Amino acid sequence: MIAIVDYGVGNLFSLSSSLKALGLEAEVTRDASRLRQAAQIILPGVGAFGDAKAKLDATGLTPVLLEEAERKPFLGICLGMQLLFDKSFEYGQHPGLGLVPGQVADLRDDLADKTLKVPHMGWNSLEIRRGDPLFKYFKDGEYVYYVHSFYAKDCEASVLAVSQYGNVAVTGVVRRGNVWGTQFHPEKSGDAGLRLLRAFSELQ
User: Fold this and answer.
1) Is residue 84 a contact partner of residue 179, using CB atoms and an 8 Å limit?
2) 78 classed as catalytic
3) Most buried pick, 20, 57, 78, 139, via CB within 10 A?
4) Known catalytic membership, residue 187
5) pLDDT digits (tens, 9 = 90+) for 78-106
6) SS3 130
7) Which residues, in sequence order, are bridge partners of residue 174?
8) Number of C-beta neighbours around residue 192 at 10 A
9) Is 185 one of the catalytic residues?
């Protein structure tokens, strides 16, 4: 069973629907015992970093997630990926989960072309920089769907794939140990995204 963490922030319906369309057993939960029983865990997220981290902490699940991330495949999606890092500078400075070294910064600050739209929203090709089992069914250059204004940086050791937006190589996929993150939404990325989710479901 894949557990999708329900902490009041996230696109839970489309994610669970995508997993079920693949024939996978998925459960949206905030029950610590179910998270411990799951084969894999997904941390979704939309909205602002500070608010999301506060809501996650309020559930009491943060220690459970930190523990389980050491034991089984764990995937953060969009804001869920950003929460994996040490800290974010979105509307102040906020601590993250510290599962992946690095920080989350404002994309606008690093774009040379200030006419480029932020949020960065739409389809971008994903350039695979390092092979990984997550890409088992995924080809270099396939398109994925992004919606974000902040991005992970200072995390080169963990970067698996990027998407170019202007002069910025947006961190698209990261991995550290059992922990993966995708800045884009696999559940909104058509067949390519579904194939990536299938590969995640096969990780052990």
Assistant:
1) yes
2) yes
3) 78
4) yes
5) 999 999 999 999 999 999 999 999 999 99
6) coil
7) 159, 181
8) 18
9) yes
